[in-house]
Design a protein that fits this description.
17 helices; 337 residues; mainly alpha
Length: 337
């Protein structure tokens, strides 16, 4: 048992946290005369290490998740979901959301397809919430920063928000607030194609290239912001606004995350820097959830397919769920960490 634990620690440190890359970056920068104790040197180290680490994890995860995703076309996903009723359907929909695209905007076309095909509205909303918030990639990336237990807890919390949110929307009978052109379309009546192993690999490779082009700029922006927070902003400022002494820190972090457009890969470096500076765990995770689930561009897109009352309900459910999760994680940190 002890040997297994040591192996898992080695995998987490060397393959997820990439301690070898951290040490290599340190060695190279010191070799060229960079003072890592200075603000500039520390920021440069943070930027190079995190950009390379996240890029390696990003490309690997996109390939693996896209290969899995090739088995879950909209048609096949619908066939799976129609077999379940009630809250079980919400659970399955939320789980299916974990093997779909990485940002909220790219999840909306699939949400539209599911809704137009006649799936219950609450089921499709469970998918819409979980898809950007808790994809499989987030589990690995979060493990590389916060450790396995916190990463799993984050994913479970996100799935719970997705299930409860979708179930609540279903019970409130909000179908009349979906735009008529979505109800009357026939988006999923397409001939399902059987893919060979080679075509699945090709699909995964294309997804790596396509997704990397979309998100790499957000990685650079996120890491740059993270490096500034990590080395230039005094710890006291972060603790005052996002530490446990500010009872409204989770609410502030959630509301601050809504206007920002990024995916999980772009938010991780900022979250890492905030945590190192004294922000509380639940506050940081609430900030991440708000960015990935409620970005302003995705809400603008969503407004084209659902009416304002349903959009406000969706945003309200997500914000309430995220805030509750944030406070629960903060309590956990105070009591157990």
């Amino acid at each position: 048992m002890e040997n297994i634990k040591l192996i898992l620690i080695f995998i987490e440190n060397q393959f997820l946290k990439m301690d070898w890359l951290y040490n290599l970056t340190t060695f190279i920068l010191k070799s060229i005369g960079i003072d890592l104790g200075s603000n500039f040197g520390g920021s440069l180290h943070f930027f190079i290490y995190d950009v390379i680490k996240i890029t390696i994890l990003l490309c690997t995860l996109i390939f693996l998740i896209s290969y899995i995703q090739s088995y879950f076309s909209p048609q096949k996903s619908k066939k799976i979901l129609v077999k379940f009723k009630g809250i079980k359907a919400n659970i399955m929909s939320a789980l299916l959301g974990t093997v779909t695209p990485f940002c909220s905007c790219s999840s909306i076309p699939l949400f539209m397809g599911f809704t137009s095909s006649g799936l219950p509205l609450g089921v499709t909303f469970s998918f819409l919430i979980s898809s950007p918030m808790v994809d499989l990639g987030s589990l690995v990336i979060l493990t590389s920063i916060f450790g396995f237990k916190i990463a799993v807890a984050y994913v479970i919390a996100g799935l719970i928000i997705a299930v409860i949110g979708g179930f609540a929307i279903e019970k409130l009978k909000m179908e009349k607030y979906v735009e008529s052109f979505i109800k009357n379309s026939n988006a999923l009546n397409l001939k399902e194609e059987s893919l060979t192993w080679q075509r699945r690999v090709e699909f995964a490779k294309n997804q790596v290239i396509s997704t990397f082009k979309k998100v790499f700029k957000y990685i650079l922006i996120g890491v740059a912001i993270g490096s500034i927070i990590h080395n230039y902003i005094p710890t006291k400022y972060i603790e005052d606004f996002l530490g446990n002494q500010n009872l409204f820190s989770v609410i502030l972090a959630t509301l601050a995350g809504v206007p920002i457009y990024a995916d999980i890969f772009g938010t991780i470096p900022i979250a890492e820097a905030l945590l190192d500076k004294g922000a509380y765990l639940g506050t940081v995770l609430a900030f991440m959830m708000a960015i990935t689930t409620l970005s302003l561009p995705s809400l603008i897109m969503l407004k084209q397919v659902i009416k304002p009352k349903l959009l406000i309900l969706f945003v309200g459910i997500c914000i309430i769920g995220i805030v509750i999760v944030g406070y629960l994680f903060n309590v956990y940190q105070l009591v157990f960490l």
